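Usage example:
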Amino acid sequence: MKHIDIREIIGNSYYVGKTVTVCGWVRTSRDSKNVAFLEINDGTSLKHLQVVIDKEKISDFDSAMKLGCSVKVSGEICENPNNGVEINACDITVLGESPADYPLQKKRHTLEFLRTMPHLRVRTNTFNAVFRVRSVLASAIHEYFQSRGYVYVNTPIITGSDAEGAGEVFRVTTQPYDHGFKTEEEYYANDFFGKKAGLSVSGQLEGEVAAMAFGKIYTFGPSFRAENSNTPRHLAEFWHIEPEVAFAELPDIIEIAEDMIKTIIYKVIERCPDELAFFEKHFEPGLTDKLKSIISHNFEVLDYTKAIEILKSADRKFNYPCDWGCDLQTEHERYITEEVFNKPVFVINYPKDIKAFYMKQNPDGKTVAATDLLVPGVGEIIGCSEREADYDKLVEAMKQRGMNFDDYKDYLDLRKFGSVPHSGFGLGFERILMYITGMSNIRDIALYPRTVGSVR
Ligand code: ATP
Ligand code: MN
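Running the assembly step on the lines above writes:
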C-alpha cells in the first residue's frame, strides 16, 4: 500500500503543497459546520496528523469519525499555525471500521484500566512513547557493546543446572500430570532431557564460558524468575543484559557499568526528545533534568559497611532491621539513593553470606567483591560482581552451600584451565526503562507482562 509515514511529514516543510497518501488510526474526531477534523496516528510518531475534511468536497465520511477506525487519506499537505502541518483530504477510505464499543474513547484512561487490555493499550500515546524508547534503548545497548568489540552471545534459555536462584526456577517438562511415577528421580529420568530442566534465571554461567574465550561478551535476552512477590518492579519474564569481561576486576566493571548507563541514556535524550517531553509532562516532572544530571555527574560508590552506618544513624524508622549482615530492603535502598545521595549509587563489598557462591571473596574473609547499582525511584537496576577465579575458594563456597558439583563441572573447569580475574553484571532492561521514562510500574513497560497469577 503506497503511503508515507506520518513521522516523515510532521515538522517537515518539504511536503507542504505536495499531495500525499497517509494511513493511520483515528485518535480524535470533531465535526463543525462546514468542515470536520480527524487526528490520525500511524504509530511512527507520537504526534498525530490533522486531517481536514471539507464537507462540500467529501460527503461520505461518517464511519471515518469513529475513534479507533483505520483510514487511508489522500490530500494536499498544508501549513497549520498550531500543529506544523495538516492534510486537506481529497479522498478518505475507511480500511477497518470501529464500532462504538471501542474501549479507548476520548477520556484519559488510568494505567490500571489499560492493563486489562494489553492488545489495545499499545495504541495510546503513553505506550507509543514507552515502546519507542524501549526500541531505541535496545539499539543503543547493542551499539554500546558492539562498538567496543564485545561479542553478542545467546546463552541457553532452557537450563539443566538447578541450584542458582533455587526456588525461583520455572520447570520445563513434557511429562503428563498423571504420569504415575513412583519417585521424583524416576519422573525426571523419563522426562524430555532425562533430567530436571528449567528456564534460565540468568545467562551468567554460560556467559563466563564465552568470556573465557572471546574476552568481552554480552547477552541480551529473556530471563525467567518464579518471583512470588507482587511488586511494581518484578516480572516473571524480563529482559536481561549481561556483559562478562575477562581481565576485569570490580573497579573495572563498575567503570564499564557507569559508562554504559550514561552512554545509553545520552542516546535516548538525543533520539527520543518528543517521548521524553511526554513523560516529563504526564509522569515525572523534572525528568529531562534528571537524565541530564545522570550523564554529567559521577555515580556514588559506597561501601556496604558505610551504608549500614548511614542507615543506623538515620532519623527515621525502617520496617526491616538494618544490622551488618542483613540484605538491604527496598526501603533502605531508596533511603540511600533518594534521600542521602539523590543519584545512582554503587553499594560495594556485601557480606558474603547474603550473596551468591560465585562472587570473589575479599581478603577480609567476610565480604565479597560485589555491587548493586541503586537508583532513585526504582531501587536496584544492576547486580554485579567480580567472579571467584580461584578453584579452591570456589569449591569451598560451593561446599558451604551444599551445592551439587556435577552440575558445575564446566564452570569449575574455567578455574582449572587458564583462570583469569573476570567480572560481569546483570542489568534489568525493564528496570532501566522505568528509570528513564519515569513509569512507576514494570507492568507498563512490557508488552504482555507476566506476573504471579497472571499470564495472557
Ligand atoms: P531484586 O532484589 O530486585 O529481586 P535480584 O537481586 O534478584 O533483584 P539479580 O539476580 O542481581 O537481581 O538480577 C540482575 C538484575 O536483573 C537486577 O538488578 C534487576 O535489574 C533485574 N531483575 C531481577 N529480577 C527481576 C524481575 N523479577 N523482574 C525484572 N527485573 C529483574
Ligand atoms: Mn530477585
